[in-house]
Write a structure and sequence with these properties.
The complex is a heterodimer of chains A (251) and B (616). Chain A is α+β, with helices and mostly antiparallel strands. Chain A is built from 9 helices and 7 strands, in the order E-E-H-E-E-E-E-E-H-H-H-H-H-H-H-H. Chain A has helices at residues 51-62, 124-132, 151-156, 158-161, 174-178, 185-195, 203-210, 224-228, 235-248, and strands at residues 18-27, 37-46, 81-84, 87-90, 105-108, 115-117, 120-121. In chain A, strand 6 and strand 7 (120-121) form a beta hairpin. The radius of gyration of chain A is 21 Å and the shape is elongated. Chain A starts with 17 loop residues before the first strand and ends with a helix. The model of chain A is unreliable at 1-14 (pLDDT under 50). Chain B is built from 17 helices and 23 strands. Chain B is 33% helix and 22% strand. In chain B, the strands form 6 sheets. In chain B, strands 1, 2, 3, 7, 8, 9, 10, 17 and 18 form a 9-stranded mixed sheet that branches. A 4-stranded antiparallel sheet of chain B has the order 12-15-14-13. In chain B, a hairpin with a 5-residue loop joins strand 17 (395-397) and strand 18 (403-409). The chains are: A alpha+beta (251), B alpha/beta (616).
Chain lengths: 251, 616
C-alpha cells in the first residue's frame, strides 16, 4: 500500500476537542441508603474516551466513594459489565462518540443479581450456575501427547470459547430477571463450549442438567443476550443448538 | 466467595473499633488467581487443603489479556528442539538469564502445553489435527539461523484460553477460592523446625497471610504451612501500559516491605506494538503472521537494525528502534509520534481467523481497520522481568542462596530468572505454567512434611492499623493526582531510554510524591467495597516499587536487554554480568532513597552459553 497518505490517519486523543458530558449514575450504599438513587455528574470528556474513563474521572476527581469493578480496560477481563443507557455493555468498550452526548449518559448496575453497592452486584449466583453445568473437559483417555482434533471440529465450538463471564448476557435476559433460578445464557454458553467439543465425553450429562425446568427451555429467544454480548458471541444461536442437541443428541 | 465448610473461618472476633477478624487454616495458601496461581492450585489442591486468595475474580486476572501464544519445541510443524529454545531464551535475555532455569523452562514447556491440551485448552490445529504453531520474536531455528514456528496458540486469545482452562479445572477439582480478598501482609515467624537448626542462624519462615475482604471490610488471617505468591506484575507504575488497572505490584510490594530482596527490577519490558496513545496490546503474533513495521515514509525500518530476522527481533530491540525512528523525525501521523504496523497484505481471512481480537481493538479504540490501513503503534509498558528472587523450585530466597522455608513465588511477580534482561514473547505464558506447576508441587511437598508454625499473638495487628489509618486519612492530596504524576514521570524518565539525569529526576519526583502521599484524603469511609481505600493502598505499593525500579536502574551503568542507558550505551560484561539484588535496609516509607535501599549483586548461572554479542 502507499504510505503517502499517513497524514490522513486519525489523530491522537489530545487533538480532539473536549466537551462536557453528564453522567447520571444509580448510586446505592447499603451502609447509608435505604433505597438506590440517581446522581448527576458533569465531566470533561473526549470523543475517543470510553465510559470507563468517565467513571474514573468521577471517582478520581469528584467522588472517591463511587464504586465499580474494572481491570483490563479493553474488553477482555469481563469486570465492568453495566447498564449504559438501558443496554448491557462493558464500560471499557463503550466509546463516548458512539453515544448521544447531547443527552445524559445513564449508568446503573446490571439487573437480576443482588445489588451490593453502586455499580457492583453479587456475582456469586452467576458463578454458581456456571459451576453447575460442569464447565470443564471430561475425557477418560490419558494420551501421551495432545489429543488430535481437526480444524473443523475445533471450529465447531469456537464461538462459545470467547466467553469472558462478564454476565452481560445473563443479566440482560428478561427470564433471568424474574426467575433467578434459571441457569441463564452464560451458563448455557459454557455448557455449549464442551457439548460441541469433539474431545469431550460428558455432553449427555450437561444436556440432562440443562433439560431441567430451569434449563434451556426457559429461553424465550428474545435475543437480548446476543445483543448484549461484548465478545460478539451468537448466544441465542448457541442456546438453540443446545436445545436441539437435547432433543436429538449431540450432532 | 463461595460459602462452604471449607471456606468458613475457624473463628471470628470483633474488636472495639468494630473491625471483625476471621481466622482460617490451610496447608497451602496461594495468593493470586491468574495463570501461575491457578496452575499451582491444580498441582497442590488434590494433595493438601489449599486456598486461593485473589483481589479479583479469577477470570478477571490479566493472564487473560495475553494474546500470541505459548512457546514449546513440539516440532509439530517444523524441526525444533528444546535446546534451541533454551539458547533463544538466553540470548533474548541478553545473557542475564540463569541458564539452568532456562533449560527447565524449555524442556518442561512440552509437557506444559500437553497438560493444557489435555485439560481442554482449545488450541488452533494443524491440518493433521495437531497443535498448530506460529513464529514469534526471537524464537529461531538452530541458534539464530531463521525464525521457527514454536508458539502454540489459540487465535490471538491464548491467554484467555489458558485462564479459562485453568479456572475450569479448578472448578473441576473444587479448589477453595477467596475472591475479592486483598492480601496485605505476609506473616513471617522464626523457623523452629529441625531442618532450621542445621541451617543458618535465626532463619525465618512463612506462616500465612492477612487479607482484607472487599465486600465487607473484614480482616482474614490465613494460617498456612506454605504460601505461594502469584500476584502478577506492576505495569501501573507507568502511564502507557498494556497492564490492567489492578496490576499494582501488591505481592512484590509486600515481599519488599518484609525485607526480602527484589531481583533485576530495572528490567522492564516495553512491548513494541501498543495502540498509539492508549497502550492496548497488539500481539507480536501479528508480526509472526507476517505483519511489518513501517515508518512515515513506508520504509520497513527493521531491515536496517536486524537484517536476519527483521520484524521478529526481540521486543527490547524493536521497541528501541521504534523510539529511535520517531526521535529522528521518521514517525508517522500529524505529530510524527508513532510508527505503523502494516497488516494490510495479510488479508481479511488471516486477520479474522488468527488475529480477530487485535483487529477488533484497532477498530474499536482507534477507528482503524487493519484489513485496509496500517495501525498506529508505539511501545507500551508490558512486563517486569525482575521480581521476587526464587530458585528453580520456586522457593523464595532471602539473599543470593538462602531459601525461606514455606515461601514460594511464580509468574510475573517472581524472578527465577528465565527472562534475564528481556523476555521473549510467548515465554511468559510458558513461565506461569512451568513454574506455577513447580510452585504447586514443591509447596505441597513442603506442607505435607511440615508442622503448622506457631503464629504471632495478633497476626492481623499491622493490617488492622493500616486500614484504620487509611480510613482516617483526611489530607488534601488526591491519590489520583499523585498516581498520575508518578506514571507520567516514569514514562518520561524510566522508559525505553534512560540516563543518569532522567533517573535522578524521577527519583526526586518519587521522593516528593511519597511526601504528598502522607497527606492523602480518602473520601469513602465505608466498609463495603471501599475501592477508594483499595486504590490508596495500591498507590503505596506503586510508589515503593517505582523507587526500587529507579534505584536499580541508576545502579546499572550499562545497557543490556530492556535496560537502555543512553549514557552507557554498551553492554559491560566485565562489571555488570550479574543480577541486581535490591534490599530494603531502612523504613520503606522514608522519603530518602539512600537511607533505605541498598544494592548488591548475584552471579548469573551459566551452563552452556558464554555471553556473545547479540545480533539478529
Amino acid at each position: 500500500m502507499s504510505m503517502t497518505d499517513t497524514a490522513a490517519l486519525p489523530a491522537a486523543a489530545a487533538e480532539v476537542p473536549s466537551f462536557t458530558c453528564t453522567f447520571i449514575i444509580r448510586r446505592f450504599d447499603p451502609e447509608k441508603d435505604a433505597e438506590p438513587y440517581w446522581q448527576d455528574f458533569d465531566v470533561e470528556m473526549f470523543a475517543t474516551d470510553r465510559v470507563l474513563d468517565g467513571l474514573h474521572k468521577i471517582k478520581w476527581e469528584l467522588d472517591g466513594s463511587l464504586s465499580f469493578r474494572r481491570s483490563c480496560a479493553h474488553g477482555i477481563c469481563g469486570s465492568d459489565a453495566m447498564r449504559i443507557n438501558g443496554r448491557n455493555r462493558l464500560a471499557c468498550k463503550t466509546l463516548i462518540k458512539d453515544l448521544d452526548v447531547s443527552e445524559p449518559i445513564y449508568v446503573e448496575a446490571i439487573k437480576g443479581l443482588p445489588l451490593e453497592k453502586d455499580l457492583i452486584v453479587d456475582m456469586e449466583p452467576f458463578f454458581e450456575s456456571y459451576r453447575q453445568v460442569q464447565p470443564f473437559l471430561v475425557a477418560s483417555d490419558k494420551p501421551e501427547k495432545e489429543r488430535l482434533q481437526s480444524p473443523e471440529d475445533r471450529a465447531r465450538f469456537d464461538d462459545t470459547t470467547k466467553c469472558i463471564l462478564c454476565a452481560a448476557c445473563t443479566s440482560s435476559c428478561p427470564v433471568f430477571w424474574t426467575d433467578g433460578q434459571y441457569f441463564g445464557p452464560a451458563a448455557i454458553v459454557n455448557a455449549h463450549r464442551f457439548i460441541f467439543d469433539s474431545r469431550d465425553e460428558a455432553a449427555q450429562v450437561r444436556l440432562d442438567i440443562l433439560n431441567d425446568k430451569e434449563g434451556v427451555w426457559r429461553c424465550r429467544t428474545t435475543f437480548n443476550c446476543s445483543e448484549a454480548c461484548p465478545r460478539g458471541i451468537e448466544v441465542t444461536k448457541a442456546i438453540a443448538e443446545v436445545k436441539q442437541a437435547t432433543l436429538r443428541g449431540r450432532p | 466467595m463461595t460459602s462452604s465448610e471449607q471456606t468458613s473461618p475457624l473463628r471470628s472476633e470483633t474488636d472495639d473499633n468494630g473491625i471483625t477478624t476471621h481466622y482460617h487454616q490451610f496447608d497451602v495458601v496461594i495468593v493470586g488467581a491468574g495463570g501461575a496461581g491457578m496452575r499451582a492450585a491444580i498441582e497442590a489442591g488434590p494433595h493438601a487443603k489449599t486456598a486461593v486468595i485473589s483481589k479479583l475474580y479469577p477470570t478477571r486476572s490479566h493472564t487473560g489479556a495475553a494474546q500470541g501464544g505459548m512457546a514449546a519445541a513440539l516440532a509439530n510443524i517444523e524441526e525444533d528442539s528444546w535446546e534451541w529454545h533454551t539458547f533463544d531464551t538466553v540470548k533474548g535475555g541478553d545473557y542475564l538469564v540463569d541458564q539452568d532455569a532456562a533449560e527447565i523452562l524449555a524442556k518442561e514447556a512440552i509437557d506444559a502445553v500437553i497438560d493444557l491440551e489435555n485439560m481442554g485448552l482449545p488450541f488452533n490445529r494443524s491440518p493433521e489435527g495437531k497443535i498448530d504453531q506460529r513464529r514469534f520474536g526471537g524464537h529461531t531455528r538452530d541458534h539464530g539461523k531463521a525464525p521457527v514456528r514454536r508458539s502454540c496458540y489459540a487465535a490471538d486469545r491464548t491467554g484467555h484460553m489458558i485462564l479459562q482452562t485453568l479456572f475450569q479445572n479448578c472448578v473441576k477439582l473444587g479448589i477453595n477460592f477467596f475472591n475479592e480478598f486483598y492480601v496485605l501482609d505476609l506473616i513471617m515467624v522464626d523457623d523452629k523446625s529441625k531442618r532450621a537448626k542445621a541451617g543458618k542462624p535465626k532463619p525465618r519462615r512463612a506462616a500465612g497471610v492477612v487479607a482484607y475482604e472487599l465486600a465487607t471490610g473484614d480482616i482474614h488471617v490465613f494460617h498456612a504451612k506454605s504460601v505461594v505468591f502469584a500476584t502478577g506484575g506492576f505495569g501501573k507504575i507507568y502511564k502507557t501500559t498494556s497492564n490492567a488497572h489492578t496490576l499494582t505490584g501488591d505481592g512484590v510490594g509486600i515481599i519488599w516491605r518484609k525485607g526480602i530482596p527484589l531481583e533485576d527490577m530495572e528490567f522492564f519490558q516495553f512491548h513494541p506494538t501498543g495502540l498509539a496513545g492508549l497502550g492496548i496490546l497488539l500481539t507480536e503474533g501479528a508480526r509472526g503472521e507476517g505483519a511489518i513495521l513501517r515508518n512515515a515514509s513506508g520504509e520497513r525500518f527493521m531491515e536496517r537494525y536486524a537484517p536476519t530476522i527483521k520484524d521478529l527481533a526481540p521486543r527490547d530491540i524493536i521497541a528501541r528502534c521504534m523510539v529511535q525512528e520517531v526521535a529522528e523525525g521518521r514517525g508517522a501521523g500529524p505529530n510524527k509520534d508513532y510508527v505503523l504496523l502494516d497488516c494490510t497484505h495479510l488479508g481479511a481471512e488471516v486477520l479474522e481467523t488468527k488475529l480477530p481480537d487485535i483487529t477488533e481493538f484497532a477498530r474499536t479504540y482507534l477507528g482503524v481497520d487493519p484489513v485496509h490501513e496500517p495501525v498506529p503503534v508505539m511501545p507500551t509498558a508490558h512486563y517486569a522481568m525482575g521480581g521476587i528472587p526464587t530458585n528453580i523450585k520456586a522457593e523464595v530466597l532471602a539473599d543470593n542462596d538462602t531459601v525461606i522455608p514455606g515461601l514460594y513465588a511464580a509468574g510475573e511477580c517472581a524472578c527465577v530468572s528465565v527472562h534475564g534482561s528481556n523476555r521473549l514473547g510467548t515465554n511468559s505464558l510458558l513461565d506461569i505454567n512451568v513454574f506455577g506447576k513447580r510452585a504447586g508441587r514443591y509447596s505441597v511437598e513442603y506442607a505435607n512434611d511440615a508442622e503448622f508454625p506457631e503464629m504471632p499473638k495478633d497476626p492481623a495487628a499491622e493490617v488492622r492499623s493500616m486500614i484504620q489509618t487509611a480510613l482516617q486519612a483526611d489530607g488534601g492530596e488526591r491519590l489520583a493526582s499523585i498516581r498520575k504524576e508518578l506514571q507520567e514521570e516514569m514514562d518520561k524518565n524510566a522508559q525505553v531510554f534512560r540516563t543518569e539525569q532522567s533517573l535522578t529526576d524521577v527519583a526526586g519526583t518519587i521522593h516528593r510524591l511519597r511526601e504528598r502521599y502522607k497527606n492523602i484524603g480518602i473520601h469513602d469511609r465505608g466498609k463495603r467495597y471501599n475501592t477508594d481505600l483499595l486504590e490508596a493502598i495500591e498507590l503505596g505499593f506503586l510508589l515503593d516499587i517505582a523507587e526500587v525500579v529507579v534505584a536499580s536502574a541508576k545502579n546499572r551503568k550499562e545497557s543490556r536487554g530492556g535496560h537502555m542507558r543512553d549514557d552507557y550505551p554498551e553492554r559491560d560484561d566485565e562489571n555488570f554480568m550479574v543480577h541486581t539484588m535490591a534490599y530494603l535496609t531502612g523504613d520503606a516509607k522514608s522519603a530518602n532513597v539512600e537511607d533505605h535501599i541498598s544494592i548488591d549483586w548475584k552471579p548469573v548461572v551459566i551452563t552452556n552459553y558464554q555471553p556473545m554479542e547479540r545480533k539478529y
